[in-house]
């Protein structure tokens, strides 16, 4: 199997292989074969009487020591994965909420409110009085209200009830899966899956769904407050891939997920003092910032900083020999980085108190002096520049143009240029007419188990050909950006006639002189909330539930617990949701059938597990067809 | 005669057999104590993956064993149970046995610079790998019983399409 479909990544890896540097692909080979009990979810380590394994062939153990069946074991494992994902997104969101609180109190001068309109829009949505009030007062109330969402409250989560359709909220309420606290839902999953609590697989799965709804809430809250502090993204052009690294500049990669530090680094990187220092160190082109993974998406959508590479290929950025520092916050940061960096001059700089890596330099973000922290980090990178080994320089000459920053606000703004009174009407009319057959949100990661990007590339071409409007977040965004699919040219090349006409009409109205890009970059993985906002806006406009729309989701190359959580809330929101890697559930026929079939009766959405990208595209098109028929549209 | 047979369709790739083997060949013979031993105890069978199939590969105790033939010092020998074993005192680390083994299951011990192979757990009734297998992908069966069962399966396949 090829390691990557990305020529830049393969070129960097080839150079590394000659130097004997081992990356994630070699580490994966060393793990093979992987344990089938783990692969099927039939392994439990939740108590000290274990570890237990169940023999799926029935000759050995049929239950764990406690008596847990395969169904219970698999359901518990899945629920804990959802809790892990929800903890990550909501940890990110809580961090931003705490920073907004400090900002409102005047304790974090480097975090002024950059988007007053968004502040007031979000505040009004969650029931905070905004009329005639000072921004700081509104921000203080908003941050306080946001932080209250994390612990257990009496009422259901405001960020859920005010962002989803009312039909959906009622469905959640009836099933008992409408959470009233984000952290408390995560804690509840840990409680019900510990020794001797919930031993009914379907009930455990409902607990997982509840936690996933809490995850959606955390994602939405994170997106909202990041926009308030750093600005709501607007579309613009940038470049993507390892070719964005410059031989004659101090290259700094911003990697992880949270914009709290990375955005500040972008803000100070244009300061003359720092640029002069870089030039004085011998870097004629000064400072060059690039992004990796979702921090990369955050600074790409707001500041058009080039995205160097994505999660699975993060090590490749170091292998170019010109990366002077990789600044990381949290999530998806491989612990291998300092070991790889040892073979080069690259400084790995950890910045968060909960995410240190042995062998890395730690320069901790303090919100009260964020710009100062950012400057120290840039100076550390400049100091590393002089230690480059010219013999190790290998920058793949591969880069693509990418348009990024299609927030809901930006999409509605573009549509308003077509129809000012009723911006959603052109979108809905075209869905009705069949020019847009449906909408697919691509989300998730790249995985070492699939040739990097292969599934994304095959599926996007197949779906676009059938006039499916494509949205993307997270490392799905990265994949499409690196392959030049976030461009008007890609629309001309791959979109079906109906989709091409719509994207061209909107693009021309927006003054682009050509079509909108084939894939609309909606942001990082917390920004899957933005895609849900689009679906909810359309559903509310039509007076139907999201589960009736020809809207689907796909994570063709998933890795993380966060992807499991997002996939679960996508299903809970009513979306047919594709996974391109088999999750560890096949050990339980019951759980497998609930997730892939029976859950449809409860929530409208279901999981489509299909490693083959062409079969997966066909399954998603079939799901959209069914939805179109349900709405009485041409199918 | 009892032989270790492998049923690849049952192998989960969990490597419990590898761990059981290494522990059996440790000084302490318990997992927790064996973890600290130096040189580290070595496994003598290998769970491998090829074309999606996982399977433990282990010494077949060949009747005409190439490793014994290849051994120039007499370190490799056949014992009283007909098991092919190795006298580590005589091993000079020439790796002739490693090259000769058609199954690739004579390994090199990089710390002690001698060859290592399965001794069929000659002091145990049931080999450690067989005991450790949670799905009975590794089984210890009398060869005559095994072949008789295979012959019966052949009849069933031929007559009932099973």
What are the SSEs and their pairings?
The complex is a heterodimer of chains A (635) and B (162).
Chain A: H1 7-18, H2 24-31, H3 36-40, E1 43-44, E2 52-53, H4 70-104, H5 116-125, H6 135-148, H7 158-161, H8 166-175, H9 182-192, H10 201-230, E3 236-240, E4 250-256, H11 259-268, H12 272-280, E5 287-292, H13 293-303, E6 307-309, H14 314-319, E7 323-328, H15 337-341, E8 347-350, E9 361-362, H16 370-385, E10 400-404, H17 408-416, H18 424-433, E11 438-442, H19 454-465, E12 468-473, H20 474-482, H21 488-494, H22 497-509, E13 519-523, H23 528-542, E14 551-555, H24 561-572, E15 576-579, H25 589-603, E16 606-609, H26 613-630
Parallel strand pairs in A: 4-5, 4-7, 5-6, 7-8, 8-9, 11-12, 11-14, 12-13, 14-15, 15-16
Antiparallel strand pairs in A: 1-2, 3-10
Chain B: E1 2-6, H1 16-24, H2 31-34, E2 46-50, E3 53-57, H3 66-70, E4 76-78, E5 84-86, H4 96-100, E6 107-109, E7 114-116, H5 128-132, E8 138-142, H6 143-160
Antiparallel strand pairs in B: 1-8, 2-3, 4-5, 6-7
Explained architecture:
Chain A is of the alpha/beta class and 635 residues long. Helices cover 50% and strands 11% of the residues of chain A. Chain A has 26 helices and 16 strands. A six-stranded parallel sheet of chain A has the order 6-5-4-7-8-9. Chain A has a six-stranded parallel sheet with strand order 13-12-11-14-15-16, with helices on both faces. The radius of gyration of chain A is 24 Å and the shape is globular. Chain B has six helices and eight strands. Chain B has helices at 16-24, 31-34, 66-70, 96-100, 128-132, 143-160; strands at 2-6, 46-50, 53-57, 76-78, 84-86, 107-109, 114-116, 138-142. Chain B has a two-stranded antiparallel sheet. A two-stranded antiparallel ribbon of chain B has the order 2-3. In chain B, a hairpin with a 4-residue loop joins strand 6 (107-109) and strand 7 (114-116). The longest helix of chain B is centred in the C-terminal third of the chain and has 18 residues, at 143-160. Chain B starts with a strand and ends with a helix. The mean pLDDT of chain B is 93. Chain A binds chain B through residues 32-37, 39-40, 53, 55-57, 59-61, and chain B through 10-15, 47-49, 54, 134-136.
């Amino acid at each position: 199997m090829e390691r990557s479909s990305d020529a830049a990544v393969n070129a960097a890896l080839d150079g590394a292989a000659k130097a004997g540097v081992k990356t994630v692909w070699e580490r994966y080979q060393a793990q093979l074969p992987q344990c089938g009990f783990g692969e099927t979810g039939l392994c439990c380590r939740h108590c000290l009487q274990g570890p237990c394994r169940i023999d799926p062939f029935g000759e050995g153990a049929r239950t764990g020591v406690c008596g847990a069946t395969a169904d219970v074991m698999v359901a518990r494992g899945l629920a804990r994965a959802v809790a892990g994902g929800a903890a990550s997104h909501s940890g990110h969101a809580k961090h931003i909420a705490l920073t907004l609180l400090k900002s409102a109190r005047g304790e974090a001068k480097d975090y002024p409110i950059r988007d007053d309109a968004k502040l007031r829009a979000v505040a009004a949505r969650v029931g905070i009085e905004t009329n005639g009030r000072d921004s700081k007062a509104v921000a203080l109330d908003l941050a306080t209200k946001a932080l209250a969402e994390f612990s257990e409250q009496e009422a259901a989560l405001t960020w859920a009830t005010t962002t989803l359709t009312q039909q959906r909220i009622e469905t959640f309420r009836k099933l008992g899966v409408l959470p009233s606290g984000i952290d408390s839902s995560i804690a509840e999953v840990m409680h019900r899956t510990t020794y001797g609590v919930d031993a009914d697989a379907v009930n455990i799965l409902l607990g997982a769904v509840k936690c996933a709804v809490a995850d959606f809430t955390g994602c939405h809250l994170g997106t909202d407050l990041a926009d308030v502090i750093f600005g709501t993204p607007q579309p613009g052009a940038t470049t993507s891939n390892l070719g964005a690294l410059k031989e004659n500049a101090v290259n700094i990669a911003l990697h992880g997920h949270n914009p709290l530090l990375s955005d500040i680094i972008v803000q100070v990187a244009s300061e003359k003092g720092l640029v002069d220092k870089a030039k004085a160190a011998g870097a004629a082109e000064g400072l060059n910032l690039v992004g990796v993974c979702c921090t990369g998406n955050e600074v790409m959508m707001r500041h058009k900083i080039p995205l160097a590479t994505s999660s699975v290929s993060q090590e490749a950025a170091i292998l170019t020999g010109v990366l002077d520092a990789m600044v990381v916050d949290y999530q998806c940061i491989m612990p291998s980085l300092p070991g790889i960096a040892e073979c080069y001059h690259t400084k790995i700089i950890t910045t968060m108190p909960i995410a240190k890596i042995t062998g890395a330099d730690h320069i901790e973000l303090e919100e009260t002096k964020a710009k100062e922290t950012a400057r120290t980090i840039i100076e550390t990178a400049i100091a590393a520049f002089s230690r480059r080994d010219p013999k190790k320089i290998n920058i793949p000459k591969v880069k693509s143009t990418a348009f990024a920053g299609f927030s809901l606000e930006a999409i509605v703004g573009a549509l308003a240029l077509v129809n000012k009174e009723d911006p959603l009407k052109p979108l809905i009319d075209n869905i009705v007419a069949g020019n847009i057959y449906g909408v697919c949100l691509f989300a998730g990661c790249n995985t070492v188990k699939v040739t990097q990007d292969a599934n994304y590339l095959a599926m996007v071409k197949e779906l676009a050909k059938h006039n499916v409007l494509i949205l993307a977040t997270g490392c799905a965004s990265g994949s499409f950006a690196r392959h030049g699919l976030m461009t008007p040219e890609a629309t001309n090349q791959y979109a079906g006639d109906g989709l091409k006409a719509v994207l061209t009409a909107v693009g021309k109205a927006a003054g682009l002189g050509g079509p909108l890009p084939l894939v609309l970059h909606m942001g990082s993985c917390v920004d899957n909330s933005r895609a849900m906002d689009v679906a909810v806006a359309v559903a509310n406009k039509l007076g139907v539930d999201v589960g009736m729309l020809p809207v689907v989701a796909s994570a063709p190359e998933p890795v993380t617990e966060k992807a499991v959580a997002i996939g679960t809330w996508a299903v809970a929101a009513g979306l047919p949701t594709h996974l391109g890697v088999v999750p560890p559930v096949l050990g339980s026929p019951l759980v497998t059938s609930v997730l892939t079939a029976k859950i449809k009766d409860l929530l409208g959405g279901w999981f489509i597990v299909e490693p083959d990208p062409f079969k997966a595209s066909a399954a998603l098109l079939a799901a959209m067809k069914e939805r179109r028929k349900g709405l009485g549209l041409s199918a | 005669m009892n032989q270790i047979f492998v049923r690849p369709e049952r192998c989960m790739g969990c490597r419990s057999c590898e761990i059981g083997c290494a522990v059996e060949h440790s000084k302490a013979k318990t997992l927790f104590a064996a973890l600290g031993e130096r040189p580290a105890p070595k496994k003598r069978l290998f769970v491998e993956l090829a074309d999606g199939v996982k399977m433990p590969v282990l010494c077949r105790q060949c009747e005409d064993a190439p490793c014994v033939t290849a051994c120039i010092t007499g370190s490799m020998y056949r014992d009283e149970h007909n098991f092919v074993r190795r006298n580590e005192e005589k091993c000079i680390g020439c790796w002739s046995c490693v090259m000769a083994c058609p199954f690739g299951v004579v390994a090199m011990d990089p710390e002690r610079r001698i060859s290592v192979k399965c001794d069929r757990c000659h002091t145990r009734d049931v080999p450690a790998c067989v005991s450790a297998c949670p799905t009975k992908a590794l089984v210890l069966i009398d060869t005559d019983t095994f072949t008789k069962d295979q012959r019966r399966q052949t009849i069933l396949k031929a007559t009932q399409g099973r």
